[in-house]
């Protein structure tokens, strides 16, 4: 091959190679075109999520309020007529607020005669009366009320009695206003308050026991008496205590149930020989032994 031919071959090869390179370059648009297609998918999803989520909750509350607003407007138009009627009712309830909510307002507003209690069995009522007798039992205290029309028992369980602020004045002679459930026990009608606040003493009472010397008590069995003296000794068991009290005329056993003893003010001093006391109680003859039996905690007073 001559020199001229050698020069022609590279030139021909060059021109043949350029189209091949061009074809190789044009064959790559497929991967170059794919990214734009994948990039376009998120752009399509983003607007869809934005349009679907946001407008829907905003539109719902906009429609509700007008409907709710319209209802009160209609009610307000019809309400003015019954409004004046409702006001007196609210005033009546407010008057009874100091009483426990368990007691119906009608029971608090007016007291009924004790003679009418049979007509209110199982209901809460309010009564007025004067205490003419008092006694204790295993779980509480009983007070006999008299209002002139009849008599009934005011029954106070220990928890109610302990919650009664007027307990120190709740004794024979006291004027009482009480609210409670009406019931009957062994033929006697009774009022049973639920709370200490259901019992109010409007006039304080006190024992009407006659002051006597210990030496003269033997002639007054079954009567109420009051003695003053000093503690000589004491005997106790699980349910009661015997306090031996003496004065210049003799000595007597003051019999006190534990439920009463636990509620006597300054009862610790009762265990000390020589403590001065004043006791109101009923004179009883138990197994040929003379005893003075106080009914209430405040019937026993520790003197200075």
Strand order, sheet with most strands: 1-2-3-5-4
Report the helical percentage.
25-40%
Number of helical regions: 7
**Could you describe the largest sheet, including whether it forms a barrel?**
5 strands, mixed, barrel
Describe the structure.
It is built from 7 helices and 13 strands. The chain folds into 3 domains: 1-79; 105-203, Beta Barrel (OB fold (Dihydrolipoamide Acetyltransferase, E2P)); 210-302, Nucleic acid-binding proteins (OB fold (Dihydrolipoamide Acetyltransferase, E2P), Beta Barrel). A hairpin with a 4-residue loop joins β2 (140-146) and β3. It has helices spanning 3-26, 29-53, 55-78, 83-95, 105-109, 158-162, 258-261, and strands spanning 124-137, 140-146, 151-157, 175-185, 188-192, 199-203, 210-211, 224-236, 240-247, 250-257, 276-286, 289-293, 300-302. It has a 5-stranded mixed β-barrel. A 5-stranded mixed barrel has the order 8-9-10-12-11. Mean pLDDT is 76; it is low at 1-108. The chain is elongated, with a radius of gyration of 49 Å. 33% of the residues lie in helices and 33% in strands. The chain has 304 residues and is α+β, with helices and mostly antiparallel strands.
């Amino acid at each position: 091959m001559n020199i001229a031919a050698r020069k022609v071959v590279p030139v021909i090869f060059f021109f043949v190679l350029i189209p091949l390179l061009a074809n190789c370059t044009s064959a790559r648009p497929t991967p170059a075109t794919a990214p734009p297609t994948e990039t376009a998918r998120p752009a399509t999803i983003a607007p869809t999520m934005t349009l679907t989520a946001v407008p829907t909750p905003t539109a719902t509350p906009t429609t509700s309020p007008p409907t709710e607003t319209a209802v009160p407007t209609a009610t307000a138009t019809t309400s003015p007529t019954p409004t004046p009627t409702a006001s007196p009712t609210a005033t009546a309830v407010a008057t009874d607020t100091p009483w426990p909510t368990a007691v119906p307002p009608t029971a608090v507003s007016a007291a009924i005669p004790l003679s009418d209690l049979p007509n209110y069995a199982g209901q809460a009522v309010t009564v007025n009366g004067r205490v003419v007798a008092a006694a204790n039992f295993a779980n509480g205290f009983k007070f006999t009320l008299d209002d002139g029309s009849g008599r009934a028992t005011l029954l106070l369980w220990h928890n109610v009695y302990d919650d009664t602020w007027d307990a120190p004045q709740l004794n024979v002679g006291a004027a009482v206003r009480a609210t409670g459930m009406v019931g009957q026990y062994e033929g006697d009608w009774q009022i049973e308050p639920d709370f200490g606040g259901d019992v109010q003493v409007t006039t304080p009472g006190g024992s009407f026991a006659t002051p006597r010397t210990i030496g003269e008590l033997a002639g007054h069995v079954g009567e109420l008496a009051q003695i003053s003296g000093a503690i000589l000794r004491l005997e106790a068991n699980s349910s009661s205590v015997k306090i031996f009290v003496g004065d210049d005329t003799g000595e007597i056993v003051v019999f006190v149930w534990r439920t009463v003893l636990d509620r006597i003010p300054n009862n610790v001093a009762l265990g000390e020989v020589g403590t001065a006391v004043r006791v109101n109680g009923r004179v009883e003859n138990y197994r040929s032994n003379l005893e003075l039996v106080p009914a209430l905690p405040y019937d026993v007073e520790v003197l200075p």
